[in-house]
Every structure is written in structure tokens, then in C-alpha cells.
Specification:
Distance between the termini: 40 Å
CATH class: Mainly Alpha
CATH topology: Ribonuclease iii, N-terminal Endonuclease Domain, Chain A
Strand content: under 5%
Oligomer: single chain
Length: about 140
């Protein structure tokens, strides 16, 4: 049984990030994108659960509209001018990362920009910049 102190555990306590910023900078941008994909997916799923009363299948269908490559590429275009130079560098690295995965439901350019968006979200998450992630996703 949980005591009063343990009743509320923040996500940062649940999922501990142990790498230093220097170590995170040395990771492949595709690793950032791998993490960013799940962070963004969780954000969208949570938003949909909070704002709708849809059943799970409909939630999935609705979530796809936001997490597909085309939507992510468009979102990156909308926010790009509001990014810092460091964030633009992260985006550039994510976009230029050599990925041997061929997209099945988008073109190569959309996929590259979606990867760049996911890399940005993953990098910000891994470097514990959650407030900035929220600012970006609220745009």
C-alpha cells in the first residue's frame, strides 16, 4: 500500500534519464527520433483521451491523423521559425540522418522531416526540457 508521500509520482520519477547532455549529444539523431516518436504518440493519445470520449479503435484512428509522417512534417514547418538555433541544429541532424527505412504511407521528404520532428522531441525529452516540449506541442 502506498503512503501519502508516494501517492503521486511524476513522470520524471517514473522514467529516469541517466545520461548526461554530452552523452545525449553523442547519440544518433535516429535514437532521438526513436524516443521522440513515443513521447509524441503518448502526448497525442493523452490529449485525445482528455478531450474526447472515443472508444479505443476510434482513438487510434484519430491519433494516426496526428502521428503520421505527413502531419509531423507539416507541424515542423509551422513551428520551425519559432525554434532556437540549437533546436534547428537538432532538426537538421534529424533530417539528414541516414535512415534505411523506406516509408510505406508517405514520401521520402515527408519521412525525413517527420524524423527531424521526432528527433527534436526526443532530444528535448532526453535533455529534460519538458517545458519546451510543451511549448512546441502547444503551438
Amino acid at each position: 500500500m502506498l503512503n501519502k508521500k508516494d501517492e503521486k509520482i511524476e513522470m520524471e520519477e517514473l522514467i529516469e534519464i541517466t545520461k548526461s547532455k554530452l552523452d545525449i549529444n553523442m547519440l544518433s539523431p535516429l535514437t532521438w527520433a526513436y524516443v521522440g516518436d513515443s513521447v509524441y504518440e503518448l502526448y497525442i493519445r493523452t490529449k485525445l483521451v482528455n478531450e474526447t470520449n472515443l472508444k479505443p479503435h476510434k482513438l487510434h484512428i484519430e491519433a494516426i491523423k496526428y502521428v503520421k509522417a505527413k502531419a509531423q512534417a507539416e507541424l515542423l514547418q509551422k513551428i520551425y521559425d519559432k525554434l532556437s538555433e540549437e533546436e534547428k541544429d537538432i532538426v537538421r541532424r534529424g533530417r539528414n540522418a541516414e535512415n534505411h527505412h523506406l516509408p510505406k504511407n508517405s514520401n521520402i521528404q515527408e519521412y525525413m522531416y517527420a524524423t527531424a520532428f521526432e528527433a527534436l522531441i526526443g532530444y528535448l525529452y532526453l535533455t529534460k526540457q519538458n517545458r519546451r516540449i510543451k511549448e512546441i506541442l502547444d503551438l
